[in-house]
Specification:
By secondary structure, the chain is mainly α. It has 1 helix and no strands. It has one helix at 14-88. The model has no long low-confidence stretch (mean pLDDT 90).
Length: 89
């Protein structure tokens, strides 16, 4: 005997198991690479979306400040008109 496991029909299991193991390892590596790639793409898309939201928030704050300034000017004008009405009436 040469030390190889064979059946009476002469099937060498080592010759079958080794290629199957190699294919399984290569398949697992490819699956991990593909999953990592799509996770990276998802993170990139999230980063782009967050940048847009940040820009939108900055614009909203700027617009809100402008509205406050306009409202303050309007309040001053209303007070002036009320004072004028008190003086007249």
């Amino acid at each position: 005997m040469t030390g190889m496991h064979t059946l009476a029909s002469g099937v060498n299991y080592n010759a079958i198991i080794i290629p199957i193991g190699i294919v399984a390892v290569i398949g697992a590596v490819i699956a991990v690479i593909v999953a990592s790639y799509f996770r990276l793409q998802s993170h990139r898309a999230d980063a782009v979306a967050m940048a847009h939201y940040r820009k939108l928030a900055e614009d909203a704050v700027a617009n809100q400040q402008e509205l406050r300034e306009e409202l303050a000017k309007l309040a001053e004008k209303v007070q002036a008109v009320e004072q004028l009405m008190r003086d007249v009436g």
